[in-house]
Amino acid sequence: MIINSKWLAKYTPIPYDKKELEARLTALGLEAVLRENPAEKLDTVVVAKVLEVGKHPNADKLTVCKVDNGAAVLDVVCGASNVSAGQKVPLALVGTRFSNGIEIKSAKIRGIRSVGMLCAEDELGISDDHSGIMILDCDAEIGTKLKDYLDRNGATYDIDLTPNRPDCTSHIGVARDIALLTGGELKKPVISLHEADKPVAAEITIEIQNAQACPRYVARLIKGVKIGPSPKWMRDALRGVGLRSINNVVDAANYVLLETGQPLHTFDYRDIEGQKIVVRNARNGEEVETLDGVHRELTEDILLICDALKPVAVAGIMGLANSEIKDDTTDILIESAYFDPGTIRKGSRMLALQTEASYRFERGADPEGTIYAANRVTQLIQELAGGEIYRGLVDAYPRSIVYPRVKIRFHKVNGLIGIDIDKEWTVRLLKGLGCDIVGQTDEFIEVISPSWRPDLEREVDYIEEVVRVYGMETVPACERLQVTPDPVGDPTYALIEELRARIGGYGYTETYCNSLVSQEQAHFTIEPVQAVKLCNPLNQEMAYLRTSMIPGLLLVAKRNFNRRNFDLNLFELGNVQHLDPEFETRTRETLRLALLISGNLEEMHWGQALRQNDLFVLKGIVEVLAEEYGIRNLAFKVQEHPDYENLIRVIDGEVALGYIGQLNPGNMKRDWDIEQAVFIMEIDAMPLILSLNRDRRYRPLPVYPSIERDISIVLPEDIPVAQVIAKIREKGGQYLTNVKFYDLYKGKNIDKGLKSFTFNLVFQAEEKTLQDSEIDEIMQVVYQTLEKELNAKLR
Description:
- By secondary structure, the chain is an alpha+beta fold.
- The mean pLDDT is 91.
């Protein structure tokens, strides 16, 4: 990014000299390097005035000029076609040595002695323009060294911007930062348009087929312009940042680009077929010729601007040759759009083509700056090239962009920076950044981030802005820094490792799966959540962060099945992510424990029959973990889901922990090429870990004997066993120590729609031997409760 200090001064006062401005910009995070004046080492190049221009007697393309350098009138032979009497020009005196090694000498050229040389911009190192000699301002003082003359046109800086600062890809953006530093006012050009009564909407329509890649497209129309050279002030401004003047219309668009940071494009309106602009993706193999004269083959990932019949521009990168501004152009369609940064970045890389426009769109232009830039360039074109501006503009904005709402706490600002920052200064800074203040107290200030700062999303981003402008150099250094290692460490980490070791001890093999998955795998979840998509994925198979652990385990299982390893007990402990607007980062991360079992539960053995893995193995794992970690309100609830043949929700009171289930065999065959029954479990690990009760106390063996009673009941088929156990515990009294469910029966002697449960109840007291009569009373209460509340009958 190149800026010019004279150009900056149009928008805010610059109270620094050129070297101090370089240092101030760098301290603000805009790493600036002052460009050396191209004429700094050319002490013998001076401002001269052309007095006369005569034809060379011995050469048709040469002229003989009388030039006044302030000390003498010299004869200089010149080959430039643009030289004329009265001009102020740079004159290289005899003895001048250029950087390419050429030295100017007094010599005869076709029989006429020439003393010196009139210079073009490329010969001076100012630009690559060799179309003619450089024409200086009329008020340039004759005899002045050219380097002193160029200094009055401002200093030029190269700014190495970080990708998160698209707002400073313009002079207004840099001026805004300088105004924050100096407390000065930021003055943007005031726009005043003289429009005709003819509405632009009657001349052009906009159709956006990919609103994600092009959220906003603005168009204006101006007719009857006259293409010609730009005025000197604009040529000088563009030259000051290394751009060559083309014509008044293209120059106006480039000027506004560098002024506002908003890329613009001007089309020859007569080349727009059907009075229509269509924004669509290219077709694979579609070919276009860009303005640089290169024929390019496109893919469907590249966004195009088209008319009703053909492409007219590669969106956000470069226009096409079939609609460029020509010398006889009279009607101009102006484009001012906002394109998705990732789309433009991908297109630019695929075409190996980076332009001033793509440089800005890749970083994130200002969606709300499109209209201002369109009006600004329209105003300039009318001033420079005349024409009639059609009334209004066409603004295709299908879905308004919502900007982050952030609360900045003053104590958090001071805590992170390490010093007390004045609250009023902080508020002034936020206003200077362009924030819309929507709430303020003595404790915090709440703002909506400005549209030109996509990097300001969280509280910490604003705290960084505070210290950036306040000045890192003004934050006092700590006199003594001591770092003491924490001997305890993170207790949560230890608990996670304990859980990992426990599952491994159950005989399960740990896996480590990729956290980047495809779109299909990202949507393989029980709960409907929105997956986090990467801005620049390596490929479409790794374009999303995983929302579930199960797809990764299925890939491991498939790999094992393909190698004839059919008996699997796998687990993984890791994080999953999904979008959640309630979080500061708008992304929720959850630690999950996932198990996958298939095939035989144990290895083949002569002494026992084989047992297949099933859903109840996983249910047992959940119950054991709940017992070990102190979850007392564990419950299971049947749920329907198309990806599962059987699915059971795991609940802790009112909190959903996860689920266990058998995957649908048909879907497994179709989507994963797996023909074997697969059972999975996935639960949130943190509630389990944080419920761990480490207060384990020794209890002596009971002194008094226990009494056991069995109870068999018949009840409706839809009542789960957990509900029955809960009722038994509720009415079992203080002496009930254990309830064990050990038999389920449906069949002969049991009516249809009913089932039989059998439970073993254990009663025991610590202070006495229980009597049968006491237990009989308790059992009677249990019978009555089950009969009344669950419609159960004794069997």
